[in-house]
């Protein structure tokens, strides 16, 4: 074996041990310092609780830190790469075109259809430029329930499929029942059409991938017959609010360190992030059918965060799951405001907590169990931090009753009991280093690569952006901690927290919305601050960063949601990302597609719901009818449908439930009744929507 | 189902719709048929003049049979039926609802220029082949794979009841089953 081969084998076998040893050593080191500092005269129950919480949280923080640190080393020492992705044209053309098809599948559920289709069209444009469009087919797997959006999806499908011409490569189906949500949607695709494709590339409604990346993903799958899933990390793009631009910057700059680090220690047992990944269809069908978990929600029922479980099932069956940290050209859009970000967390939280039941399930690989545990911790960490802070406050209160504590007079510098100052200060510094050093490392990486630094607006501007982002993340962290703690508590107590659907597009937070979402945070800050200041004043000063974040949550939430502020920051060269400074062609194509005249705009007026209006248009009616399946007529069904049409005409659209509206649109009899009765109404609407689909 | 249906009983006592024989009603029906034909894509006055009498004739016939009901409703239904009958004839179909539906979508979607002329009987050129060529292939041919749920054996699932049951059995106490 050559030296290079030997070192590769050693590296492969020692990567994980190195990582886990570093994480454990760091945790043990900080734990020993803290335990030495707090167990003054024996270990009380409260101190024991503090130590346990600190251990869990330090494991979490040091795991994250060492992932980033290793990622830094990987990126710093790997040979000079031209671009994160940019597979060369030679590599792109090295596959065997035409021998099999890859499906681009986009599961959608009540998404903005214009954006969905514009995104897909941008990707098709990008694929056309690679000359490999013929190797791909597109599937829109609609689970949409809203009648308006359902019809709009069909219209847009029809128009675009006409443009694409023959052979048909754009397919659309709306599922009758959205059983098992997104995982059920994908499973349904595999059951119906999976045999047609060797690979499927799973996209989210806001996913975008460059043509080169799509082709390269297929090439990599072809190169490794045991590779079942290749995840390409998506970079956040396209939002313009201050909050979102800050996250985009952080995701672009720090994200690559974390992703490289994850790929280092996860190796062939990486994870599936739900989208922007290519999957070998047959093993997916063989091994990734998800069972319902026994028991009732939140921990029983359908598996909500299916992606982790699917990756674990593939790994369990002996297939490889990898993270392509070196492959760019993969994008996603993120929530525009802090409140939207929290809403997304609410949706994800329940699914991740459900994984707690899978950690010890039989047969999974140890690393898959770790993925489950990390998924749980990504939300459980918040209530644990909260408990830790409460325990610290209580401990400080009891200490204040017994002995002098850490602050005297107006001194803002903590004065520790003589023998423990070094230990406590070290604990504090180590924790801060673990939290903030990855950001510095990301800047060091930029300093090593001037071209890359320019893509982030230059080293100076990037450093300033990091500084501002760090300060704001200190303010935002306690708010997110309370949000997530509330979600976790609500899920455990089986109560609803009543979040409306997530809004994806740019919009801004108003005062009323902010007060509604953050009013409690502000009150908590005032109450806790007052109690702490009066009872344990020295603790109060320690606690000010957390209190400040909560106290300022309303204005911070409002101002960071401002697109004007985001644009101003952009003009000032702050939070710039490579996708902004050198806009990738696929993002540009998306903008162009979105700027095209809207088909739906031609059809809609303000007076009625889109679906009733659309059903008066014979062309739209006939198209929808053609996409339904024929079924035997029954008198009973006809009577029910007639009743619904009468109700619609007499009491208006709002009198029908979503299910009733869908019933009318799901049966040819219902459609016929609806179309003819709307046209036979004594007072016919003027002007009629006569635009062709 | 809402009150809009259950409270319909009152409608049984309402006066019967105006008689078909009233000239105003005939005019209203004719006007509605013309508007509907226009919405279907029939804009040429000659085509409208050719089709409208056919629809009205059928409405008259329904009235003769005492099946008129709501005249406007019947008029729209008959126009729709006239179109479907023409599609069946043009394509030589026999009870193939999916194909009729597809053909209807093809003509109403504006994919076949001049179809209204043919429908109105003003053209001798058959559109059958053109109609068949317009695909509404929303999904490809099925290529099914089996994808059954894979079992996941949870650890400690119902551990306490299972332990109690085992202890019960060990002590010779049988659990009562419902």
TrEMBL record, chain A:
Keywords, alphabetical: Cell inner membrane, Cell membrane, Glycosyltransferase, Membrane, Transferase, Transmembrane, Transmembrane helix
MF terms in GO: hexosyltransferase activity
InterPro entries: Glyco_trans_2-like, Glycosyltr_2/OpgH_subfam, Nucleotide-diphossugar_trans
UniProt membrane topology term: Multi-pass membrane protein
Domain called Glycosyltransferase 2-like: residue spans: 201-423
Pfam families reported for this sequence: Glyco_trans_2_3
The keyword Cell inner membrane appears for this protein: yes
Cellular compartments per GO CC: plasma membrane
Primary localization class, coarse: membrane
Location of this chain's protein in the cell: Cell inner membrane
Glycosyltransferase is among the record's keywords: yes
Name of the featured protein: Glucans biosynthesis glucosyltransferase H
TrEMBL record, chain B:
Originating organism: Allochromatium palmeri
Highest taxon in the source lineage: Bacteria
Protein name per UniProt: Uncharacterized protein
């Amino acid at each position: 074996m050559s030296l290079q081969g030997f070192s590769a084998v050693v590296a492969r076998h020692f990567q994980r041990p190195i990582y886990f040893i570093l994480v454990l050593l760091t945790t043990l080191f900080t734990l020993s310092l803290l335990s030495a500092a707090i167990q003054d005269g024996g270990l009380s129950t409260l101190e024991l609780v503090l130590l346990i919480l600190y251990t869990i949280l330090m494991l979490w923080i040091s795991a994250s830190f060492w992932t980033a640190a290793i990622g830094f080393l990987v990126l710093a020492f790997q040979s000079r790469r031209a671009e994160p992705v940019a597979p060369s044209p030679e590599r792109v053309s090295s596959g065997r075109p035409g021998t099999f098809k890859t499906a681009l599948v986009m599961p959608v559920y009540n998404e903005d259809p214009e954006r969905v289709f514009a995104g897909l069209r941008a990707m098709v444009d990008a694929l056309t430029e690679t000359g490999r469009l013929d190797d791909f087919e597109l599937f829109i797997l609609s689970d949409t329930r809203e009648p308006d959006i359902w019809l709009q999806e069909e219209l847009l499908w029809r128009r675009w499929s006409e443009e694409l011409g023959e052979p048909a490569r754009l397919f659309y189906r709306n599922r009758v029942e959205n059983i098992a949500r997104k995982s059920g949607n994908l499973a349904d695709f595999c059951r119906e059409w999976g045999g047609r494709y060797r690979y499927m590339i799973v996209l989210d409604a806001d996913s975008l991938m460059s043509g080169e990346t799509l082709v390269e993903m297929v090439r990599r799958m072809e190169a490794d017959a045991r590779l079942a899933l290749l995840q390409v990390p998506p970079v956040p793009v396209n939002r313009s609010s201050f909050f979102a631009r800050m996250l985009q910057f952080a995701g672009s700059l720090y994200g690559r360190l974390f992703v490289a680090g994850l790929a280092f220690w996860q190796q062939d047992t990486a994870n599936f992030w739900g989208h922007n990944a290519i999957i070998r269809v047959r093993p997916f069908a063989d091994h990734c059918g998800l069972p319902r978990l026994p028991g009732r929600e939140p921990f029983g029922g359908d598996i909500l965060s299916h992606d982790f479980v699917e990756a674990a099932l593939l790994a369990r069956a002996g297939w490889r799951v990898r993270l392509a940290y070196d492959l760019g050209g993969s994008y996603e859009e993120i929530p525009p405001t802090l409140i939207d970000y929290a809403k997304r967390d609410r949706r994800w939280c329940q699914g991740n907590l459900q994984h707690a039941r899978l950690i010890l399930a039989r047969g999974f690989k140890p690393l898959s169990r770790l993925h489950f545990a990390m998924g749980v911790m990504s939300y459980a960490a918040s209530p644990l931090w909260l408990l830790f802070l409460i325990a610290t406050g209580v401990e400080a209160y009891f200490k204040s009753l017994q002995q002098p504590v850490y602050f005297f007079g107006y001194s803002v510098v903590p004065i520790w009991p003589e023998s423990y100052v070094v230990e406590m200060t070290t604990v504090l510094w180590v924790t801060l280093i673990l939290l903030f050093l990855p950001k510095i490392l990301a800047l060091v990486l930029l300093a090593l690569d001037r071209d890359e630094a320019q893509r982030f607006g230059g080293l100076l501007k990037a450093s300033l952006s990091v500084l501002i982002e760090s300060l704001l993340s200190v303010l935002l962290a306690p708010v997110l901690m309370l949000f997530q703690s509330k979600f976790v508590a609500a899920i455990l107590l089986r109560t609803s927290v009543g979040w409306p659907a997530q809004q994806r597009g740019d919009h801004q937070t108003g005062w009323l919305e902010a007060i509604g979402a953050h009013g409690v945070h502000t009150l908590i800050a005032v109450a806790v601050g007052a109690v702490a200041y009066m009872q344990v004043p020295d603790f109060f000063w320690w606690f000010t960063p957390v209190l400040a974040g909560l106290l300022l949550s309303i204005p911070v939430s409002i101002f960071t949601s401002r697109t004007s502020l985001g644009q101003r920051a952009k003009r000032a060269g702050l939070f710039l990302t490579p996708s902004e400074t050198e806009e990738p062609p696929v993002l540009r194509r998306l903008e162009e597609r979105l700027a095209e005249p809207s088909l739906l705009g031609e059809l809609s007026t303000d007076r009625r719901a889109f679906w009733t209006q659309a059903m008066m248009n014979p062309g739209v009616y006939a198209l929808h009818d053609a996409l339904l399946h024929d079924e035997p007529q029954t008198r009973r069904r006809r009577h029910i449908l007639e009743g619904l049409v009468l109700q619609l005409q007499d009491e208006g659209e709002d009198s029908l439930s979503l299910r009733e509206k869908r019933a009318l649109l799901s049966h040819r009899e219902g459609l016929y009744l609806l179309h003819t009765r709307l046209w036979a109404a004594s007072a016919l609407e003027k002007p009629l929507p006569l635009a062709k689909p | 189902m809402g009150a809009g249906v259950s409270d319909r009983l009152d409608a049984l006592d309402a006066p019967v719709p105006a008689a078909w024989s009233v000239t105003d009603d005939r005019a209203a029906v004719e006007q509605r048929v013309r508007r509907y034909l226009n919405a279907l894509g029939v804009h040429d006055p000659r085509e409208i003049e050719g089709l409208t009498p056919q629809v009205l004739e059928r409405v008259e016939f329904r009235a003769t049979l005492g099946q008129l009901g709501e005249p406007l409703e019947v008029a729209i239904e008959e126009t729709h039926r006239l179109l479907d009958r023409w599609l069946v004839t043009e394509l030589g179909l026999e009870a193939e609802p999916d194909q009729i539906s597809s053909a209807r979508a093809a003509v109403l979607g504006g994919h076949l220029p001049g179809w209204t002329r043919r429908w109105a009987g003003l053209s001798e050129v058959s559109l059958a082949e053109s109609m068949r060529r317009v695909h509404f292939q929303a999904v490809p041919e099925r290529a099914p794979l089996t994808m059954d749920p894979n079992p996941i054996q949870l650890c400690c699932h119902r551990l306490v009841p299972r332990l109690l049951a085992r202890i019960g059995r060990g002590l010779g106490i049988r659990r009562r089953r419902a």
